[in-house]
Amino acid sequence: MKELERRFQDDVDRYLIRHRSILDVLSKINESAARVNRAVSKSVTSCGCITIDATKQQIPPDASLSELRDFMATHVQGQLCERCREIVETEIGSTLFYLAAACEVLGLDMESIVRKERQRISALGVYRLT
User: Fold this and answer.
1) Other C-beta atoms within 10 Å of 32: how many?
2) What is the structure's pLDDT at 17?
3) What separation, in Å, do the N-terminal and C-terminal C-alpha atoms of the chain show?
4) What are the residues whose beta carbons fall under 8 Å from the beta carbon of 38, sequence distance 6 or more?
5) How far, in Å, CA of 51 to CA of 34, rounded?
6) Alpha carbon 23 to chain centroid, angstroms
7) Residue 114: helix, strand or coil by DSSP?
8) Whole-prediction pTM value?
9) Residue 71: which pLDDT band, with cuts at 50, 70 and 90?
10) Separation between Cα atoms, residue 7 and residue 111, nearest integer Å
11) Is there a contact between 36 and 92 (Cβ–Cβ < 8 Å)?
12) Half-sphere exposure of residue 52, counting CA atoms within 13 Å on the CB side?
């Protein structure tokens, strides 16, 4: 996995030509994230392969912190169809591309960032309520 992340960042650096300015990269991250949101929304409103049933999360008052996950709903009903899955994956891939570009432009190592975040998640466990 580590080698894959480094190669991905190297590939992004090689193919990132037009949008090398950090301002371009940041705006492209926002644009691609919005396209993820749009693709999921279209899966609901145009295709209908998934539905969103969003209601207030119902958490029993006596639930412990370690039990919270069992009571938290995703609000997603159904499964992405093959066409919608491909579109959402493409848009998430684009977002990953621009995140890797931001790392490259800022001299950061994406692999190191992922490793540090994983360590934070492991260390804090359920107390990392984000």
Assistant:
1) 19
2) 76
3) 25
4) 91
5) 19
6) 21
7) helix
8) 0.82
9) confident
10) 10
11) yes
12) 10
